[in-house]
Design brief:
This protein is mostly beta strands. Helix content is 2%, strand content 50%. The strands form three sheets. Strands 5-6-7-10-11 form a five-stranded antiparallel sheet, with no helix packed on it. A four-stranded mixed sheet has the order 2-1-4-3, with no helix packed on it. It starts with 12 loop residues before the first strand and ends in a 21-residue tail after the last strand.
């Protein structure tokens, strides 16, 4: 169990996306899209994956570009102004080059409204995308370039902060 979830704290369970290590626990809060499989390996896995896998690891493997033309479009709606959409296109450019692009968007109004500022809390506004380009010049060599990114603009749930110091706010001596 990892109690300390602070920024400089090394995680006990490693999280990898397509072989790339996410170094901080906060980095593993992401949208998943166009996933081939998720592997969960019991720890310790330090020999194969490094020191930050004493309790194991979660490895997310995304789908690779393929030789067939394929595409998917999805959409959804819900309460509190919720709507989402996702699209994927796998496009072979030649016999040796293919590309795969996936995008996903989710939005929802928050279910708590601050009447003083007219701002919603616990809202969702996220967009994620990934493009991969695969080049296979022969049977023994393949090269892949993956570019991904995400954007989130959300307001967290309301919380209460309690000052444990003197009532004046002065530093305790």
């Amino acid at each position: 169990c990892q109690v300390n979830w602070s920024a400089p704290q090394d995680p006990k369970v490693g999280v990898y996306v397509d072989g790339v290590y996410l170094a901080r626990p906060q980095g593993s809060v992401f949208e998943l899209l166009d996933i081939e499989r998720i592997e969960v390996l019991r720890g310790p896995q330090g020999t194969l994956f490094g020191r930050n896998t004493t309790a194991g690891l979660v490895q997310v493997i995304t789908k690779r570009p393929g030789p067939e033309l394929e595409g998917v479009v999805q959409g959804g709606m819900g309460n509190d102004g919720q709507y989402s959409g996702a699209a994927m296109l796998n496009l072979p450019l030649s016999d040796t080059v293919s590309t795969r692009t996936a995008i996903q968007m989710r939005r929802a109004d928050g279910y708590v409204e601050n009447t003083a500022t007219n701002q919603d809390w616990n809202d969702t506004d996220a967009m994620t995308g990934r493009t991969s380009l695969l080049w296979t010049p022969n049977e023994s060599l393949n090269m892949e370039l993956i570019v991904d990114g995400s954007r989130r603009d959300e307001h967290a749930a309301l919380a209460q902060c309690v000052w444990g110091g003197p009532a004046t706010g002065a530093q305790a001596t």
